[in-house]
Amino acid sequence: MQTLIRNATLLTMDGPEGAVPIAGDILIDGVVIAAIGKNLVAAPDARIIEGQRKLVMPGLINGHTHSSETFLRGRYQNMPLEVWLLYAYPLLMGPAIAPRLLYLRTLLLAMESLRNGVTTLCDDFFDPPAHDLERLGTVFRAYKDAGIRANVSSAVMNVHTLDALPYAREVLPQALQDKLDFGPPISAETYVDYCRSAFSSLHGMAGRLNFMIAPSAPQRCTPDLLVACHDLALKMRVPLHTHVLETKTQAITGHLMFDKTLVAYMHELGMLDRNTTIAHSVWVTDEDMELMGKAGCSIAHNAVSNQKLGAGIAPIRRLMDAGVTVALGTDGVSSNDTARIFDVMRVAGLIHSASGPDYGTWIPAADILRMATINGARSAMLEDITGSLTVGKAADLIMLDLDTYAFMPLNDIDKHLVFSENGSSIEMVMVAGEIVMRDGRLTTVDEAAIFAEVRETVPALLTEHAELERLNRVFDPFFAEIHRRASEEDVGLNRYAGDAPAWRASNWR
């Protein structure tokens, strides 16, 4: 079936001038964009959508999120990452959540994403205590039913939590250390076998769902697991998606564990290349950025989450200048509290003006839009499929009403989108040629029924989670001490002060 959107304002994000709006039509044939131009002619039975006073642009891409946090929205604040993890991802774990709740938490994230213009997301979900193909399939099924495009993986780690944190063995009493028996760690061979099964049974589902490989972080995985993950990612041509240098504690970790930065350690293992996507990248050195740029790496800039957790401000301008592809991510909705990339765009467009007095280096709105679209696609290794309005690419797009407060009066569209819009102007969302949201209504899911089921079933889960929080609170003062020690450490880490000028680096505590 063909769809013709005619007489619209188009923001193609295709090529160097992609952030400049043009007037025209867009013809969609099946799942792909067939033509872009003026006065296009469609088949007699084509669906016609009038585009006057409408803006059509590529769907937004969430380069990094965790569906495992969906039910923990609005639960925590004023906690650094190392303390927050105790509650959002308890060390003393309960049983894995029921399959239906696993489905619901994934579906709810997809629903919120689509409503707010995100047509592709990269979900690094956590599902203790083991990697299970059937449960992974439940996550895939939720995304399939919602109609979204997604890269999906369940994060893997096989280094004991206390051995991946500086000072932990020194700070925690032995009695508490003895409580943390996670059983035998997963081997590289076992995880690779799991990944191969995922590739053979789930990868490519519905033509828009892929499996990616996600070692949690270099300090949380043994070298053989990291290398095995990287080799398989190259073989399967999928992203290697990991967390690197989110906090100063992690910067200290690299020096104490490997006598080098975590990025330099990854480089030493041969893990930096086109497939590598790094979430956060806050406490990177100039040498790190040079390595990442030469390797063609991508990062997912989680501008909102990093501020909520007090992690710092990633040096985005210097990363861009080094040749690193910068995408945007919400992170999970517990460390962000929404799945809206529009929020991340606004924050990213604002915080980097604190990088110093040279305002010529501040990040323009057009670059922020690229991060949210074509750069996000590149970080997900999907730039040949989505991320721009380009003939031959998938018809992943959103249509916004220009007769709203966010665009009234209309000046520069890129600045309106970054600084004024919050997703409320979205009238239509399309993924692979299918309209998944129109006139404020999701077409693939009964929102009222899902909300009712969440209200009915999730409170019991949260009651159980509150008990886990209580049990894990015993670790709180010791993890706070780890955070304090790392924040006061001085081993030349003033270079890790993000985009802050040198005169402010000493304040990054």
Automatic annotation (TrEMBL):
<dbReference type="Pfam" id="PF01979">
    <property type="entry name" value="Amidohydro_1"/>
</dbReference>
<feature type="domain" description="Amidohydrolase-related">
    <location>
        <begin position="55"/>
        <end position="436"/>
    </location>
</feature>
<protein>
    <submittedName>
        <fullName>Amidohydrolase</fullName>
    </submittedName>
</protein>
<dbReference type="InterPro" id="IPR050287">
    <property type="entry name" value="MTA/SAH_deaminase"/>
</dbReference>
<comment type="similarity">
    <text>Belongs to the metallo-dependent hydrolases superfamily. ATZ/TRZ family.</text>
</comment>
<dbReference type="InterPro" id="IPR006680">
    <property type="entry name" value="Amidohydro-rel"/>
</dbReference>
<dbReference type="InterPro" id="IPR032466">
    <property type="entry name" value="Metal_Hydrolase"/>
</dbReference>
<keyword id="KW-0378">Hydrolase</keyword>
<dbReference type="InterPro" id="IPR011059">
    <property type="entry name" value="Metal-dep_hydrolase_composite"/>
</dbReference>
